[in-house]
Amino acid sequence: MNHTYTLRNLAAVLFSRLRFIVICTLLFGTLSLFAARFWIPARYESYASMYVRNSGVTEAERTGNVNLNDLNASKSLVSTYIAVLTSQTVMNEVARQLCATLDEQTLWAAFPGAGPSNPPNVLKNIKMTSVNSTEVMRIAANTKSPEVSARICNILVNIAPEALIRVVGAGSVEVIDEAVPIYQPVSPNIPLVTLIGLLAGLFAAALLVLLLDFFDDTVRDTEKLSQTFSSPILGEIQSTDTDENEAFPSKVRTFWSTFSPSARKRTASGHSRRTGRRSRRKLITDENIPFNIVEGYKSIRTNIVFALGTAPNKTIVVSSAAPHEGKSTTAANIALAFAQISDRVLLIDADMRRPVMHRTFVADNSTGLSTLIISLSSEEDSIRKRVMGNLDLLPSGPLPPNPSELLSSAQFQTVLKSLSERYDYIIIDTPPMNIVSDAMAMHAGGGILLVVRYARATYEDLSEAVKKMKLTDANMLGFIVNDVERNPPGLYSNRYKRYGYYGYYAYSYSRRRKQTTPAPSAPKSPANGEPQKPL
Questions:
Q1: Helices (H), ranges, 46-187
Q2: CA 301 to CA 476: how far, in whole Å?
Q3: Is residue 3 pLDDT above 70, yes or no?
């Protein structure tokens, strides 16, 4: 949530959602065009003109010498004549004659529901003006029918002299032009309506973008995150789209799954379909992981080594404030990164409610941390050796009914102390802090890493998690920002342009390697000459 805006902030926010603004603008403009073309009824205008003559005409005017006093008097009479002709009595007479001279279908087309017993209100369809402030008066009628508009003007012109003489008792009018039907509509003005729709769409979209940005409490700026909680950012992991729905962004997939029964079915059955094989978690050992992702975890590994420089042991607790932040994937990749520099690295799955590591590394989960704590299995029986490279895995084991009590027990601290003597680095995957308190029970190690998902984690959730760590005097190592967008919006986009450089470098490196490296062939055994299976 940003409460202080400058012109630069506003411009950055608007340009970051430029595509959305353009789409909304075009959508409003298109709707306005269709409304003006097919929905708003066309209106037609006809007009007649009359010349207002003062009764006190002099002999000089008749002979061609214009008297300015008489001309000004005629001009002043125009306002009086307009007031008389727009009176209710005159309008009622116009409506009566209109109903008498038009057939019902034509009358209903212009005034729905009108008839002899229900005369239309024609005053709102009539406009009288003085032409350029002269003594010429123009009468215009605007209705849905060109014939009705012309008929109203002509009826009014015909009854005007009698009405004026009866009421004013002076002056006279002469008809200059009678009204004729004009079949060219005067409204709606399609270009003007379309322009108004475009401007309305632009304004609405810009206002919506600013409101959403104002009330957006998600993490989108790593510098602000670090300053808010006075903790370092140990690394940023760029988002990847390597799953089977790569064509659709994650937010679109989430939105679509709300309405698509098949998508909901696939999501619900995803857990069972991944049983018995490695899940779709993106590990840095996979071939399709981009180069910058691998380098990101190596950079995190280096920062953690420095952060643990004065820690009593090298036990790292990986957690998050809320679910679905990517903590398990982050924990697995950090463990793999450390396994590349040390042969004594252990990954512990301490999430005894929704364990995933045994599926990620395709390992047996019949024994593990839960059985080791209560001495139902030994360390050798519980730890899975070399699940990937130099990495050892201690799975969660059978799910216990009291995971918080197990992790808070003295037996667990004894197990953790024994394991820390055997391994250089221990990475522990735990449940989200704001859901359960399991992570707080094991903070006595090197420290806690808090995984934050970009544009999803909120400052409110993070504040609650940080408060819990302060209450238990836990060592906060820092944040890892996960799933950072390739082109984040706003003022922060320039900070992530380096990812494009790394991506290009990785692409060039991979392309050169494919061009220069011959296709692998099965080596022959020196004993019998039979080809061996590749490792």
A1: 59-62, 68-85, 88-101, 104-110, 146-167
A2: 16
A3: no
pLDDT band at 164 (very low <50, low <70, confident <90, very high): confident
Cα 478 to Cα 311: distance, rounded to the nearest angstrom = 14
Say how many C-beta atoms besides its own lie within 10 A of residue 513's C-beta: 9
Report pLDDT digits (tens) over 400-409. 999 989 998 9
Tokens linked to 206: 């810009």
d(CA 406, CA 373): 7
pLDDT confidence band for 449 (50 / 70 / 90): very high
Q: Per-residue pLDDT averaged across 69-90, rounded?
A: 75
Residue 417 in tokens: 């102390």
Q: Strand 345-349 vs strand 384-388: parallel, antiparallel, or unpaired?
A: unpaired
Which among 76, 87, 78 has a CA at the least distance from the CA of 49?
Answer: 78
Amino acid at 329: T
- 3-class DSSP state for residue 125? helix
Tokens 């005159």 correspond to what residue? 90
Q: Residue 312 is encoded by which pair of tokens?
A: 């009593």
Beta-carbon-side half-sphere exposure of residue 442 (alpha carbons within 13 Å)? 36
Strand order in the sheet with 44-53: 126-130, 136-143, 44-53, 172-177
From 38, 45, 46, 47, select the one nearest 193 (Cα to Cα).
38
pLDDT in tens, 230-247: 999 999 998 875 443 333
Domains of the chain, each with CATH number or no CATH: 7-39+189-214 (no CATH), 44-177 (3.30.70.1130), 222-240+282-513 (3.40.50.300)
Is the pLDDT score of 511 beyond 60? no
Q: DSSP readout, 367-430?
A: SSHHHHHTTSS-HHHHSEEEEETTEEEE---SPPS-HHHHHHSHHHHHHHHHHHHH-SEEEEE-
Residue 138 pairs with which residues in a beta bridge? 49, 129
Distance CA 303, CA 226 (A): 15
Name residue 420's beta-bridge partners. none
pLDDT value at residue 132: 79
* Strands of 193-281, DSSP E: 233-238
